[in-house]
Design a protein that fits this description.
It is built from twelve helices and nine strands. The chain is an alpha/beta fold. It binds 3-methylmercaptopropionate-CoA (MMPA-CoA).
Length: 268
Amino acid sequence: MTLQIDSSRFTNLDVKDHDDGVWVVTLNRAEKRNALDIATIEELVDFFSVAPRAGVRAVVLAGAGDHFCAGLDLIEHHDQDRSPADFMHVCLRWHEAFNKMEYGGVPIIAALQGAVVGGGLELASSAHVRVMNETTYFALPEGQRGLFTGGGATIRVTDLVGKSRMIDMMLTGRVYQGQEAMEVGLAQYCVEGSVYDAAMELARKTAQNLPLSNFAICSAVSHMQNMSAMDAAYAEAVVAGVVNTQPDARARLAAFADKSGARVRRNS
Ligand code: 1HE
């Protein structure tokens, strides 16, 4: 069953269907530096709940304006004067959204410009591929604000940069940018010029893979990280059993066999 995505339902997100099954989801509150209020989180839950069953083949996740995302909406948080239980539930909604992204099986390419900070970095780290440029900078200012990460940074940012760098970022507010950000693993691509154009190109390339292969890549790998090595190896065999025998792959295998299929060559 294929579900439909009604773009007009979204306000804080701008949701657009491009060709080839590539969708662009843009955080659309540039005047607030795309800070994540609860309404934005609910729209992310909404979109990424439906996307895997709506024929979405890849997503470019972008931010309007000069900055990708300023993290938690600090003004909303201040105004609402939340109880511990209230904020726990807020964080659980963030996890709902970000888990649907990471485990949903639809490739998400994040186009990161300007500030990618606090919850903005938590959001970016839920994507599968991150593209930065010379404007991009990453930080976790929670420590300075009297806060702690609540949107999965302890897991996902630690996965990217390692425990000691994660703790340093939180303690000292260290900012990573440029080549150093690449070297510590915060992004896979650093481009000159538009991160959006580069992310679109990657999304289009990704969308040419068979959806079941992409589902496994953008779901199974993350699940397997949570398993013991023995269980992960078993799960890998089961997933490969399903994916590697899919009827749609036969034409690609036949093309390799008759030598019309592309060969893997080193970059020129
Ligand atoms: C905001 C937010 C926000 C901007 N919540 N409204 N996150 C932070 O600590 C980052 C806080 N933000 C900043 O450091 C800066 O705003 C930026 C570096 C992102 C951008 O600077 P700049 O000079 O371009 O903009 P600005 O003048 O600081 O802000 C422009 C407007 O955006 C202004 O609103 P206005 O109505 O006065 O025009 C700001 O109030 C608003 N704005 N950032 C709300 N974050 C699940 S736990 C997650 C924990 C966290 O994420 S902690 C948050 C960390």
